[in-house]
Amino acid sequence: MLGMPADRVPRAGSDHKYDPMKFTVVGVFAQHPELAQRFLRYNRYLLTDCSLDTRSREIAILRVALTRRCTYEWGQHVKIALDVDITSDEIERLTHGNDGFDGVDRMMLEAADELLGDGRLSDGLLERLNAELDTHQVMDLVFVVGTYNMLAMAFDTWRLVPVPDTAPLPPLARPT
Questions:
Q1: Residue 140 falls within a domain, yes or no?
Q2: Distance, CA of 170 to CA of 89 (rounded, Å)
Q3: Which element (helix H / strand E) includes 41?
Q4: Quick check: is 14 in a domain?
Q5: What CATH code is carried by the domain that includes residue 35?
């Protein structure tokens, strides 16, 4: 991933020219190529091939990044969200809760909140999701929220610095 064999990658934090920590996500994964190969294949599915539409996926990921206070994840996914026609107004609104959202957008936010808070979807929300989405979409939603929750933990553990010119993490407001 850094253009060298894994056993030649310098120790993270060494300040070497190829210190993995200078390469954000790639740098972290370069320290464990076997994990990187398998995880990045899986994550590519979530980002490019999952059954959720891109808008729904990004709304859920933004709520995860906000709730978990992951600056790196927030900055990266605000850029993606803006590229898929989620407006800056909508991004601002989701930082204050779920008011102003309805339909599938609202269910994405509620699902992220429940999964992050309780570790599962409530019967009522699951019923509403099943009425609106197919089985694959509901499954993909759970895996998107779970995966990006895990990534937020990883990114924050390795103290990934936000990419320059990405959106700063806003203050946390309690979801409604």
A1: yes
A2: 13
A3: helix 33-44
A4: no
A5: 1.20.1290.10
Radius of gyration of the chain (CA): 17
Q: What pLDDT, in 10s, does the model give residues 87-122?
A: 999 999 999 999 999 999 999 999 999 999 999 999
Residue 74 predicted with pLDDT over 70: yes
- Residue identified by tokens 């509901």 is 138
> Would you call 160 exposed, middle or buried from its count of C-beta atoms within 10 A (0-12, 13-18, 19+)?
buried
Domain span at residue 61 reads: 21-157
For residue 76, being part of any structural domain is answered with yes
Distances (CA, A) of 103 to 54, 67, 126: 15, 21, 14
Stated pTM of the model: 0.86
Question: Cα(45)–Cα(42) distance, rounded to whole angstroms?
Answer: 5
